[in-house]
Amino acid sequence: RGKMAARLSGGENRLVSLPLSRIRVIMKSSPEVSSINQDALFLTAKATELFVQYLATYSYKHGRGKEKNALTYSDLSHTAEECETFQFLADILPKKILASKYLKMLEKEKRDGEVGEGDEDEEEDEAVEDIR
């Protein structure tokens, strides 16, 4: 085993905070993965830990965290929506909205969709008349 793997067995002197057994399970859930090198496991855990730390720090500094001295879900979702680096997380960290607002949005989209469809038919009819 490599030097990194030897350090992992130290127990109290852990270099990563995330549970390696969970990360191994996630990695093995991919059909392309047949075995996992101990160093690859450690590096994946450490990279994940550093990414989460960076996301949290960035969200805290650019959100309302400083005002409240706390990191909130809305800080994270705002970062995912506004920062290009984190936009791939927008589906995972959507902005929270009330169910009543969501239902109103769906209703509005449905109405707009019906009106829009009717308008398109009229435009097509006009285009056909112009051709004749």
Automatic annotation (TrEMBL):
Recorded GO MF terms: DNA binding; nucleotidyltransferase activity; protein heterodimerization activity
Annotated segments matching region Disordered: 109-132
CDD domains referenced in this protein's UniProt entry, alphabetically: HFD_CHRAC1-like
All residue ranges annotated as the Transcription factor CBF/NF-Y/archaeal histone domain in the record: 17-78
Coiled-coil regions listed: none
Biased composition (Acidic residues): 115-132
Keyword Transmembrane helix applies: no
Membrane found in the keyword field: no
Keywords per UniProt: Acetylation, Coiled coil, DNA-binding, Nucleotidyltransferase, Nucleus, Phosphoprotein, Transferase
Entry's Gene Ontology cellular component terms: CHRAC
Compartments where found: Nucleus
Major place of residence: nucleus
Pfam families reported in the protein's UniProt record: CBFD_NFYB_HMF
Gene3D superfamilies: Histone, subunit A
InterPro entries from the UniProt entry: CBFA_NFYB_domain (IPR003958), Histone-fold (IPR009072), Transcr_DNA_Rep_Reg (IPR050568)
GO biological process annotation, one example: DNA-templated DNA replication
PANTHER family per UniProt: CHROMATIN ACCESSIBILITY COMPLEX PROTEIN 1 (PTHR10252:SF54), HISTONE-LIKE TRANSCRIPTION FACTOR CCAAT-RELATED (PTHR10252)
Function of the molecule: Forms a complex with DNA polymerase epsilon subunit POLE3 and binds naked DNA, which is then incorporated into chromatin, aided by the nucleosome remodeling activity of ISWI/SNF2H and ACF1. Does not enhance nucleosome sliding activity of the ACF-5 ISWI chromatin remodeling complex.
Subunit structure: Heterodimer with POLE3; binds to DNA. Component of the CHRAC ISWI chromatin remodeling complex at least composed of SMARCA5/SNF2H, BAZ1A/ACF1, CHRAC1 and POLE3; the complex preferentially binds DNA through the CHRAC1-POLE3 heterodimer and possesses ATP-dependent nucleosome-remodeling activity. Within the complex, the heterodimer with POLE3 interacts with SMARCA5/SNF2H; the interaction is direct and enhances nucleosome sliding activity by the SMARCA5/SNF2H and BAZ1A/ACF1 interaction. Within the complex, the heterodimer with POLE3 interacts with BAZ1A/ACF1; the interactions are direct.
Name of the protein in question: Chromatin accessibility complex protein 1
The organism of origin for this protein: Ramphastos sulfuratus
Gene expressing this chain: Chrac1
